[in-house]
Amino acid sequence: MSLPTVALVGAGVIGRHHGLVLSQLRDRLHLVAVADPEIERAERLAAERGGRAYPSLTEALRAENVDVVVVCTPTGRHGQVSIEALAAGKHVIVEKPAEVSVGRTDEMIVAQRQAGTLVTVISQHRFDPATERVLAAIERGELGRLTSGIAAIDWWRGQSYYDSGDWRGTWELDGGGALMNQGVHTVDLLVAALGRPVEVFAYTATLAHQRIEVEDVAAAVVRFVSGALGVLHATTSAYPGLSARLQVHGDRGSAVIDNDELAFLHTTPAGADPQEMLMGGTRSVAQASDATASSNPGQLSDAHRRQYLNFLGALAGTEKLRVDLETNRQSVGVITGAYESARTGRPVTLS
Ligand SMILES: NC(=O)c1ccc[n+]([C@@H]2O[C@H](COP(=O)([O-])OP(=O)(O)OC[C@H]3O[C@@H](n4cnc5c(N)ncnc54)[C@H](O)[C@@H]3O)[C@@H](O)[C@H]2O)c1
User: Fold this and answer.
1) CB distance 173 to ligand 1 below 6 Å
2) Which is the most buried residue in 36, 46, 300, 316, by most CB within 10 A?
3) Going from the N-terminus, what domains does the chain have, and what CATH number goes with each?
4) Does the beta carbon of 165 lie inside 6 Å of ligand 1?
């Protein structure tokens, strides 16, 4: 049986990473085209990972028989490229975030429904073992009623990072700064844990970088439909760069994931009573330690590969697609809502 064929669109930093993942999955997927207007980038990646180089998706689709289009362009081009692929009846794997606005994400959703094909938005940290373990505990009710959470991204990006591409730090193509580009993963995990966000209030600032339109620090509070409250803190100006951290708290347990590792997990299994008298700090390293041991830091490469495997399972009809456009739309919505709140000085209700 012939393998599904792939066109990889955008041969920059993350495009090269998808090239690596595709080579790891060469027995499941066949890379036939790499497209980038910077043709020498496409040629270099094609020479390394396979396929022919093209200056655009349009030319790749004209010349090659393609089943799956992988979109690794700047964020503000995700919609245009994905919709072209969907209009041609292709499946799509698109990098995060889906697009720079909820409206543009909705256009992709309409195109996907018309095509009837699969679209997954890369949210690789949902596939980390630590995340899977925490979400499963929440699903089983072992954290009890969820009360609050914190998504904190305390990173550093030098000025050279923003200067490395014209699109970086622009509203049109990056869609935002620390919260949208770097923070979206952790915001997405908070949404996965706490459910649908309904209101957000935020402040943003640009304090440590020049020549960018967007924020390098954002602080926000979020209310979720369940009543749970969340805090978002995202920055690219915390020198020398610390971690991405998720905290989730409930009335029967709490979890902390730090840099993709399970740092703390305290759960109360069904049928057991939480200790009513417990107050103040507790350490649940015993419960967390086995998960930490099994957590594969495998970083970028392994997490992307795990999401590809889910996509392949969904393509074969053996698994449910775990991240679709609607899933990512919620995270895009809370982030763009935070930007609107910072601009207007008012809380923003999320649709
Ligand atoms: N999942 C993750 O952890 C992760 C990490 C980094 C970046 N990303 C996402 O990946 C996307 C790209 O980021 P990057 O850092 O690789 O950027 P980059 O600038 O390194 O690469 C983007 C590439 O896309 C090409 N391009 C632009 N328009 C195109 C078009 N219409 N058709 C084909 N190619 C086009 C550019 O020439 C460039 O080579 C962004 O949306 C970013 O948010 C995700």
Assistant:
1) no
2) 36
3) 5-124+304-322 (3.40.50.720), 125-296+329-349 (3.30.360.10)
4) yes
